[in-house]
Amino acid sequence: MLPNSPVRRLVAQRVAQGILLLFAVSVLIFGGTQILPGDVAQSILGQSATPEALANLRQELGLNDPAYLRYFHWLGGILTGHLGTALTTRQEITATLMPRLWNTLFLAFWAAVVSVPLAIILGLLAVRYRNGPLDKAISGFALASTSLPEFFLGYLLILFFAVKLQWFPSISTVYHGLPFVERLKAIVLPATALVFVVLAHMMRMTRAAILNVMQSAYIETAELKGLSALDIVRKHALPNAIAPIINVVVLNLAYLVVGVVVIEVIFVYPGMGQYLVDHVVKRDVPVVQAVGLIFAAVYIGLNIVADVAAILANPRLRHPK
Q1: DSSP string of 161-207?
Q2: What is the pTM of this model?
């Protein structure tokens, strides 16, 4: 149960806004795939296809129907759990997509397990030793990590740890039935690249949020009581800075799931990103639409979680006068 009426109202508003936004995104995804250049039927049958064969395939795929009818037919399938049929393989998209989604979530989960606690710890250390050598070293690392694009980090990891040291494989091959330890070994490099991508942002936001709270009057009171700097940060500053920290952590978790496309392509990881790129090349529109909508749903859903967490972490909303 949510604590009170204002909180329930705000949470309901965020959820309703998220649903409306997802509907709008579905329209954009469908419309964007429809205006892509080229002919889907021609792409499937090849350049040697006869006009009769092309016409028959367009009729079979429903390409001759008005766009709005095709959209509502697609949306109705989505609402009933049917993502459509892949044009290139004629297989149900749901059946082929779910293992890929699981692989992406597995990779994102382990990247988050490492990056989230590490970012908070580094942020706390930077505040504890503010303007000191450790703070400057952490800030310098964060700046360097933010400046390097993720594909460059991925290739650097492959060069040093896969090619030169040969500690980990350069191609992250995972499949059903692979032992858990082997699966973890296969994702070490792509997960490390993702950790570098999101770690700096979370750490810098943690540091900024806590430093903002450290200027409050109750922090001065705690200092006058003789509490150590670590206790002040841990017991007073961190709990009151938790809302923006939760926001940035959840948004980076959304990026871990949605922004893995480049990393998965570099490491040939069989996840959603690699699946999307493969079918963009083949111009398999139903697959592109399904993957795009799932990415949008995950991102919007985690944004809603971040908003709700920030609302629940606000004592002025939880205990109104």
Answers
A1: IIIIS--S-SS----TT--HHHHHHHTHHHHHHHHHHHHHHHHHHHH
A2: 0.78
